């Protein structure tokens, strides 16, 4: 049974069950980890589930449950990292989103946002109102609707009817273009955006990718950031408009 979002805070305090897996034959440690988690043995659950992931078993529910186990074990950074991995595999799961937001609210580092533009805010909400899958199905339906109206315009008689068909085609084409642009941007972000999370207790941001460079800032456990590039044992990161530098790979998890 999956942890429901409105119960998550209570579950953190008194214990609970974990998300069910679509299949558990891929790794023998899944069942053992679930048993350990339900018995409150979170370190053992982590060992079992992490071993499955290290051996190449990739599953959204597995990462989500591993995030829950890390959270219950007091390892906030690794919890956030695994919630992000789960969302990468299943972007529209409300439980994943809620638990990630809940965990991120507990991080120390906060980035001050500029005053939100109401127009941009409305566009952002509209952009995320539909999932990518729903948008693709909608685009398919709109395509056939445009084709149908075009056929009707050919067979109907009278200028008024033809003009109505022309107007309908124009209106539906505009909607098609808007939804198509939104869907294309989601695909672009999914393919190109790389984020990271501080999984250690803290991570120094340095001016160059080496141990001898100046420390510019220090990020706390659980802080998320954008990964710009990888250079040896360091990654170049950006957090907001003011923070940019390099952190050690050993102190972070990269969500690819």
Task: Give the topology.
Layout: H1 8-14, H2 29-38, H3 42-54, H4 60-72, H5 76-89, H6 94-104, H7 118-127, H8 132-155, H9 159-192, E1 195-198, E2 202-206, E3 215-220, E4 224-231, E5 234-239, E6 243-248, E7 252-255
Antiparallel strand pairs: 1-4, 1-7, 2-3, 4-5, 5-6
Provide structural commentary.
The protein is α+β, with helices and mostly antiparallel strands. It contains nine helices and seven strands; from the N terminus they run H-H-H-H-H-H-H-H-H-E-E-E-E-E-E-E. Helix 3 runs antiparallel to helix 4, helix 5 (76-89) runs antiparallel to helix 6 (94-104) and helix 8 runs antiparallel to helix 9 (159-192). A five-stranded antiparallel β-sheet has the order 6-5-4-1-7. The chain has a two-stranded antiparallel ribbon with strand order 2-3. The protein has three domains: 5-104, Alpha Horseshoe (Serine Threonine Protein Phosphatase 5, Tetratricopeptide repeat); 118-192; 195-255, SH3 type barrels (Roll). 26% of the residues are buried.
